[in-house]
Design a protein that fits this description.
The chain contains eleven helices and 23 strands. It is an alpha+beta fold. The N terminus is likely disordered.
Length: 455
């Protein structure tokens, strides 16, 4: 046996491998709300391509960057074999709309952000981890920091478009619409399943009566909050004594499929501007760090968080205290006695951030009397969900197209293999269509009765 082969075999036995950079790379971006399901399919080292994995059994190594939770990381690099041939899948989850734009190799702007500024959204097109410099490991090399050269990963020298993009909505209502014969004419592999969302108040260790009274919100109230960004608590509770508190909206930026879902399905309007705030820290990466012991509420205007994880962290932030929260902090904008926030987020991101998913006596609220859980999504009462599409770039072909086709099947099977949606009281990030008793006829419609397999 050659010395190089012996060394490679020893590294593989230790579970620490950096593969040959000559292997091709497929670039995947898009939905942060659905990334855990995609991660499960890509990291599956036991099932192979016929049973829910993308790669051949026993060939997977990977690294993740940007989170202590591997499945919640912004950046991921996977390596494995497909039919015996090595390949990288390089992931950057920047949001569904930013992902669609990246697959079209175009930019997406966020207008009228904080102080009226307009800026290009991160991820359109994307900057990627250099796969040849990432230290990949059997079972995963989980790096909390983003790639910076000192933790087993560096970014590529320049940004470029994606080969594949996950999206919580279809291109029919996208900011980057389909135009035949152009780079925006993406290949739609289909919808892998239902992607889910919830509404939540921000966590308060010592909740006020006003916070407790707001346990349900209605569709008209949602539309008013999207338009105004801040409203008296009594507007939601129906109790005028609650108007000494203000409720602030927390949400995503324009690159988000979660935001597109809430605007489209609520009838507010998919392409309308909103007014939103950040809690605990701003959405600009150059913002100063959160001051311990106090919450920092910032008017972001039409801007929002880059990922669902950012919203989840904001709604879970108590300013470093385990006894007081925003309910004990004077309202910084409207002069009220206190304040709290409402935000829209995926159940998985909320739960990962410690935001309790219990019945509405806790942090999550009902919408029109319905609670966000698998059973209410599958039977119709909860309407805030979308179809998870996988898109490929214009005229995609070769190994990129092969990975797209296999990934679509792998993710669809993963939802079934992990029994997502089976527990009616569960809060899964995705649900297979085989469990759905309702469907949506478009991205902007409410659920109607009737099962449509593989929407």
């Amino acid at each position: 046996m050659k010395l190089s082969t012996k060394i490679a075999s020893a590294l593989l036995a230790l579970g620490l491998v950096t593969q040959a950079s000559a292997d091709p790379t497929v670039y995947l971006t898009g939905s942060s709300a659905f990334r855990t399901a995609v991660f499960d399919a890509l990291s599956d080292n036991t099932d192979g391509t016929n049973a829910g994995g993308l790669f051949d059994t026993g060939t997977v190594t990977y690294a993740t960057f940007g989170s202590s939770s591997a499945s919640g990381a912004t950046y991921m690099v996977f390596h494995g074999n497909i039919n015996g041939a090595g390949i990288y899948v390089d992931c950057a989850f920047s949001g569904s709309e930013a992902g669609i734009a990246s697959a079209c190799n175009s930019t997406l702007n966020n207008p009228n952000a904080r102080n009226g500024a307009t800026y290009t959204l991160s991820g359109s097109p994307e900057t990627w981890v250099n796969p040849s410099n990432a230290v990949l490991q059997v079972g995963g090399n989980v790096v909390t920091a983003n790639p910076n050269g000192a933790n087993g990963g560096t970014f590529e020298a320049s940004s470029h478009g994606a080969d594949l993009a996950q999206a919580d909505t279809s291109q029919a209502i996208s900011w980057t619409p389909f135009v035949a014969g152009t780079q925006t004419a993406l290949n739609d592999y289909g919808s892998e399943g239902v992607v889910t969302f919830t509404w939540s108040k921000n966590v308060n260790p010592a909740p006020s009566n006003e916070w407790t009274h707001v346990s349900n919100i209605t569709l008209p109230q949602i539309n008013s909050l999207l338009a105004n960004g801040a409203l008296p608590a009594g507007f939601f509770s129906g109790n005028t004594n609650d108007n000494d508190f203000t409720v602030y909206l927390v949400g995503r930026n324009r690159g988000s499929g979660t935001r597109m879902n809430i605007e489209a399905t609520s009838t507010y309007g998919a392409h309308k501007q909103v007014l939103q705030y950040s809690v605990g820290f701003g959405v600009d990466p150059n913002d100063p760090a959160q001051a311990t012991g106090t919450l920092w509420l910032t008017n972001e205007n039409n801007n929002g968080y880059e990922s669902g994880g950012g919203v989840a962290k904001a709604l879970s932030d108590t300013g470093g205290s385990v006894t007081v929260g925003s309910c004990q902090q004077a309202d910084p904008f409207n002069g009220g006695k206190g304040w709290f926030a409402l935000g829209y987020v995926s159940p998985a991101d909320a739960l990962n951030a410690g935001n309790n998913g219990g019945e509405p006596t806790n942090n999550w609220v009902t919408v029109d009397g319905a609670f966000s859980n698998n059973g209410n999504i599958e039977t119709g009462p909860w309407w805030f969900w979308g179809h998870e599409h996988l898109y490929g770039k214009f005229q995609i072909s070769g190994i990129q197209n092969t990975v797209g086709s296999l990934l679509y099947t792998a993710v669809s099977k993963t939802l079934v293999n992990l029994t997502f949606g089976v527990d009616p009281n569960g809060h899964d990030l995705g649900i297979p269509y085989t469990l759905m008793h309702v469907h949506k006829t478009s991205d902007t419609s409410f659920p109607v009765f009737g099962q449509v397999i593989g929407e």
